[in-house]
Amino acid sequence: MLGVKVESRLPAYRLIDRPDQLPPLLAALDRVKEVSLDTEADNMYHFKTRVCLLQFLVSGQVYLVDALAPIDLDPLWARLEKLHLVMHGSDFDLRLLHDRCGFRAKSLFDTMLAAQLLNRSRFGLAALLEEHFGVALDKDGQKANWSKRPITPQLLEYASLDVWHLPALRDILKRELAKLGRTAWMEQQCRAQIEAGTLGFAPPDENDWRVGHSERLRGAGLSVLHAVWHWRQETAERLDVPPFKVCSQDFLMKLAEAAEQGGTEAEILGNVHLGKRHPRLFPSLSAAVRAGLARDPRTLPRRPPRDPAHRSLTPPEIALQDRIKADRDRVAKEVKIEPTLIANRSQLAQIARHPEDLDKVLLPWQADLLRQQPSLKKL
Fold first, then answer.
1. CATH classification of 13-197, choosing from 3.30.1120.10, 3.40.50.880, 3.30.420.10, 3.30.70.3340?
2. CA 367 – CA 360 distance, rounded (Å)
3. Pick from 277, 354, 343: nearest CA to 311
4. Among 78, 190, 241, 336, which has the highest number of CB atoms less than 10 A from its own CB?
5. How many percent of the chain have pLDDT more than 70?
6. CA 67, CA 72: separation in Å to the nearest integer?
7. Basic and acidic residues: which segments have biased composition (predicted)?
């Protein structure tokens, strides 16, 4: 059976795809302080990402809410924002829900963050469920088109398993964190995750077309890249598919590089093939390349001025960054976690520029690990 090994017990679920089916879930939420939550989206199949399914585990009962059904979910959001959430890999979900309805979590325990702080080599939900509960999630569920209706029973079972074991998994990881004295680390990570979720996804920018190694382009290549990138966006929106299903960024860069080298329209498009959509899409792609070749690259949107906070490091700052990185790597090895969990490359650069901003750049637990290291202690 899809979703689990033979010996695993499938959770029963209630599918909510009509307005009259929602009240029992609302009543259940009114009786609890905590809920396990997951979402399924259609970002692999459509131009604009939508929440397609919401999975809840409330007091041992799984509820699956069809988010594409004609149901007023405002009462659901109002209740959810008052509850503690147990989730796995919540970053995408929280941003998605914020963009949909302005949702902000009250508090959170993210089992993926916990597994990372425990230095688990495999911290995906499928790996953790198999390790602790003998459950094997079918990988097909990760690639499914969740916007297709009706949702198959097999996919609904898969979706149920995404939340069914979360409370038990949370309890296991929580005990391990306590043994290592990392409970406060986890709380800080989860609060930061909530804050990041309220930012939603970055809005479109007029320089989003500068993909790949576009900084190497100076002439016709820039104009062609601008034209074919917008052609891909417009085509994807018209076909209602993600842009990568029209063509890859590498494909766009090859066209731009051919133009940069002085190629004609025919030479640029000589070996191009767009799969089964080629007959329909090739004429508009040709028009885009032609328009790019005819455009003066000086008329393209200009890069925004460099943020002074992200200026290039001076030689002394580079030397300090190297020392901080060495200290970070040594401390990470001592506490047995991935070094970037303490500070990533961007954060190392910020600290090297302004060591006095250590507590602004990092979370308290991260800053405390670095504060007493030789690279920063003497500053």
1. 3.30.420.10
2. 9
3. 354
4. 190
5. 96
6. 9
7. 293-310
